[in-house]
Amino acid sequence: MAQKIFLCGAGFLGPNIATAISQANASGRNNILRRIQLSSRNPDRIHALLHDKIPADHLLPAVAVDITNPKTLVPAFKDASVVVSLVGILHGSPEQFERIQWRGAQNVAQAAKAAGARLVHISAIGADRGSKIPYARTKALGEEAVLALCPDATIIRPSIVFGPGDGFFNRFAKFAQFLPFLPVFGTGSSRFQPVYVGDIGRLVELITRDDPGIRKAADGKIIEAGGPDIFTFRQIMELVLKYTNRWRPIVPVPWAVGMVQGAILERLPPNLFTLTRDQVEQLRYDNVVASPPPTTHVAFDKIMADQGYSLTSVHEILPQYLR
Ligand SMILES: NC(=O)c1ccc[n+]([C@@H]2O[C@H](COP(=O)([O-])OP(=O)(O)OC[C@H]3O[C@@H](n4cnc5c(N)ncnc54)[C@H](OP(=O)(O)O)[C@@H]3O)[C@@H](O)[C@H]2O)c1
């Protein structure tokens, strides 16, 4: 017997989650074979990306879906045991954020419910319905819509995710290559709790198992996923310099200057230096796991430790891909 796990979105996290599920298949850690299907607006890209990493019998052919169009979701989710909702955007108008991160998440939940599939929804630390930042506000509205339709869904809120191919550390590593300095807004004292993409993969692998103990812990719960260490923004820039083996001055940039930069750069086509005013604003806030966790949450490190996993430090992984 085999189950279908549908990964809706195949950007950075999707292929890493697929790899974790495939590794669990190969090791026999779960007694049911899980076949993974990913979606992309360019499904051929997925085949090229994964064919040498994942055995062919663990994968179903990738399909194209648009989460803003529910008609594309219904056939894709047919026969799925679990749907993992991974679509998110970093840039766009407030309307685009609403269409994708709120209404799109709602469409995914509706279609998963209609297919009789469990749902794992990836949100983000900082999701806040009262925020004036569209990313944070629509992440919260998406969570609410998901839980209203699928009260047993598990919501995962990562902090910044790191690993080969990430968009955050790699970007600052490129800055260190091309700029004579590394900027930090304000005093660079906002805190972050970077989490390894492989640990997010293992977490989703655990939750997508049909294990009554894990389901009891995770169904209907929010898991804020942060790594083992907390760093200020300035310390993160120091890590980038250490592991790229470069020296650059770290230069504080006043928030007001950051906003002016954002106002200019957000008008240009997306590129390495793309920065929006909302992203600058977001950097004012800590991005760390709530402590102590509210009763609606379950602790990431505990759920992982219960299954014999410890969380991976940036010091283990950054040197492997930033050098
Ligand atoms: N990476 C992080 O540090 C981080 C931190 C916190 C939270 N998260 C959240 O985790 C989730 C996954 O993150 P990620 O880094 O893997 O994101 P990502 O690399 O940006 O990938 C996003 C995916 O969304 C797809 N997509 C965009 N618009 C779509 C639409 N209308 N219909 C269907 N698919 C669409 C893209 O599809 P195509 O393949 O067609 O381009 C891509 O596969 C997101 O919800 C993100 O907000 C990520």
Total strand count, please?
12
Portion of residues in helices?
Answer: 40-55%
CATH class of the domain at 2-162 and 194-226 and 288-311: Alpha Beta
Give the CA-CA distance, first to last residue.
Answer: 44 Å
Order of helices and strands: EHEHHEHEHEEHEEEHHEEHEHHHH
User: Which homologous superfamily in CATH is the superfamily of the domain at 2-162 and 194-226 and 288-311?
Assistant: NAD(P)-binding Rossmann-like Domain
From the 3D coordinates, which CATH architecture of the domain at 2-162 and 194-226 and 288-311 would you assign?
3-Layer(aba) Sandwich
Low-confidence stretches: none
Radius of gyration from CA coordinates: 19 Å
CATH topology of the domain at 2-162 and 194-226 and 288-311: Rossmann fold
Mean pLDDT across all residues, rounded?
Answer: 95
Which helices and strands, and how do they pair?
Elements: E1 2-8, H1 13-27, E2 33-38, H2 43-50, H3 70-77, E3 80-85, H4 94-115, E4 118-122, H5 134-149, E5 154-158, E6 161-162, H6 169-178, E7 182-185, E8 191-192, E9 195-196, H7 197-208, H8 212-218, E10 222-225, E11 231-232, H9 233-244, E12 250-253, H10 255-265, H11 277-282, H12 300-306, H13 314-322
Helix pairs in contact: 1-7, 3-4, 4-5, 6-9
